[in-house]
Amino acid sequence: MLDVLLMVMxxxxxxLAMPAGAMLARVxxxxxxxxxxxxxxxxxxxxxxxLLSAVALVLVPExxxxxxxxxxxxxxxxxxxxxxxxxxxxxxxxxxxxxxAAMLTDFIPESLALxxxxxxxxxxxxMLLAGLMALQNLPEGFNAYRELxxxxxxxxxxxxxxxxxxxxxxxxxPAAALAGFFWFAGNPPLVSGIMLFAxxxxxxxxxxxxxxxxxxxxxxxxxxxxVMGFLLGILGHMLTTHGT
Length: 244
What we know:
It is a single chain. The protein is an all-alpha fold and about 240 residues long. Helices cover about 85% and strands about 0% of the residues. It has helices at about 1-25, 30-65, 70-90, 100-120, 125-150, 155-170, 170-180, 190-215, 220-240. Helix 1 packs antiparallel against helix 6 (about 155-170), helix 1 (about 1-25) packs antiparallel against helix 7 (about 170-180) and helix 5 (about 125-150) packs antiparallel against helix 6 (about 155-170). The model has no long low-confidence stretch (mean pLDDT about 75).
């Protein structure tokens, strides 16, 4: 029972990094020129690097380990196709929510994997995964808030609704972790398929929505932001797999 409570708590804390990032994005008027240019683009690139690290170091290796080649390819391609169709739908309704969708499809499968890790008895690995999720969700929450605020009417009520929605979304993490702990842990191929599906969708989103936003002429910090975001994933992966 204590493990379940710990699992819920760390997953919730990782999820709350999303509204924390959104609240950070609200301070744009402190230094508007700086935030609108190099810092904002660096945060976007950092989030893209972190997402790529999740795909390359967590979702794809873990997902492909328990599936045959054909099924792995089908799940991965299906995720990319599903996100393409979602992108077409969002464009049809003129809604900018690509970063938000990428954030959720990263957070939910990793929460499922975290719950399964607790069920398998890998508590240390699960705790490190939770920390990596939190550090990914912070810039992703920042980017998603700026993306949504750019397509909505300004106002205090809008800001409050956006932050509230991010808090509510953070509750999906504990729910997914509980599902991974009690239901999905007994079916490893299903968890793997979900992770690969999410990986395909995230990869599509990175190159469709995130990478183009990170470009800023005659500035070199944003590309380094992507490098640092991926480095974050490498460090988390090494700590999880090697314990050093």
